[in-house]
Each structure stands twice: as C-alpha cells, then as structure tokens.
Amino acid sequence: MKNGLTFALPKGNLFPDTVQLLFKAGLLKDKDILLDGRKLVIKDEPYTFIICRPTDIPTFVEYGAADLGIVGKDVIEEQRREIFELLDLQYGKCHFAVAAARDNPKVHDLGKLTEIRAASKFPEVTRRFFKGLGVRAEVIKMHGNVELAPLVGLADVIVDLVSTGRTLRENNLIEITKIMDITARLIANRVAARVYDREIKAIVKKFKNLVGGEKDEVNLK
Description:
- The protein is of the alpha/beta class.
- It folds into 2 domains: about 5-90 and about 185-210, 3-Layer(aba) Sandwich (D-Maltodextrin-Binding Protein, domain 2), CATH 3.40.190.10; about 95-180, Periplasmic binding protein-like II (D-Maltodextrin-Binding Protein, domain 2, 3-Layer(aba) Sandwich), CATH 3.40.190.
- Helix content is about 30%, strand content about 30%.
- The protein has 9 helices and 11 strands.
- The chain has helices at about 15-25, 30-35, 55-60, 75-80, 125-135, 150, 165-170, 190-195, 195-210, and strands at about 5-10, 40-45, 45-50, 70, 85-90, 95-100, 115-120, 135-140, 155-160, 175-180, 185-190.
- The protein has a 6-stranded mixed beta sheet with strand order 2-3-1-4-11-5. A 5-stranded mixed beta sheet has the order 8-7-9-6-10.
- A hairpin with a 2-residue loop joins strand 2 and strand 3.
- The longest helix is centred in the last third of the chain and has 15 residues, at about 195-210.
- It is elongated, with a radius of gyration of 19 Å.
- Its main location: cytoplasm.
C-alpha cells in the first residue's frame, strides 16, 4: 500500500477556497506551499497534490493518477467520467442557464419550440437538456466568449455558467431558464475509494464538518 493519498486540485477560481478547505481540515500543514510558486506536483506528507486544469481533473482521478479530486459540478456533468462523487463542498456557486438575446422573443419560450441552435462550452449538457425538453437541438461547441453567439446570429441561445448575470446584462442577453445549480465537489477514483475506504471516509467527514455537504456517506462498495 502506498504512503498517503494524492489529490488533484483545480487551477483558477476554485483554487483559493480549495486551499483554505484543505488547510482548515488539517490536510495541509502550510497553505503557502500551494499558493506560492508554479510547482505542479507538491508533497506535504503524507499527501501529494497535483495542480491541474479543472477539465483535466476527472481524467486524473478516473485513471488513478490521483485518488481524490476537487472540481466543479459543471465539469462532472459535461464529462460523466467513471468516478465517485463524494461531497458537495458548497463553494464555487453558480448555475447552468439557457440565455438568449433580449430582442429575440421568439426563442424565449422553449416549450413552444421544436428545434433550436444552441452554442455552448458544454455541448453534452446542452444536448441532454434539450433532448429532455423534446426539442431537436443543433449544438455548436465553443471555447470562449459564448455570449457572442446569439448577438451575431451564430446561435439562437447559449447554455453557459451564470454567476451574477452581469455578463448577460452587459451584452443585452436574458436568462430564459435555469438548468441546474453548480458547486465544487469532492470526487474519488473508484478503486482508491475501496482500497482506502477508511482514509477517504475520514476526509469526507472532516470536509463535511467544515462545509456541510449533502453527500457524506456515498456507497463506495
């Protein structure tokens, strides 16, 4: 058995809260070792921390390069990897939403549509959502500035993450409907969850005591 678990941690918006969580849970002796420098693999015995792009975290966890990971629910829903989702960490709050140009009311009532063209950085989430509505959707994958799509006629609507709604308002877009809430989640490799069952459940308990999550006793068997 190896000595200590490996965590995959997200760069970007979730990183500061993630470091605070690890430190308060006692899993990180010195939070400055994660906040300083550009190292991508950091050891703080008995744990190892891999710093990577959020979209890569489910891959590291699924293939066992990391035993545990912290990543947004948006990435989990888009990729649907073979991992365990253990705990809602209650930070990084935003939501998936459908938005359209304010001056294009013909697409504001999705229930009346039979087909639509949607642009999104999350094509799988978008396809599943419109399939659930019974609307035939042509989905255009984008990598950034998705708000442009309905403004220049590339798409009827967009599906994107919304936090404050400021970007939508400033681009004369309105939110048509909310799809689902998003927060950071603790995930685990399926094999590691069985081999290190006791250690991982202890970590879940520490995190839950700090953040109050909904899933603390997932079925790891």
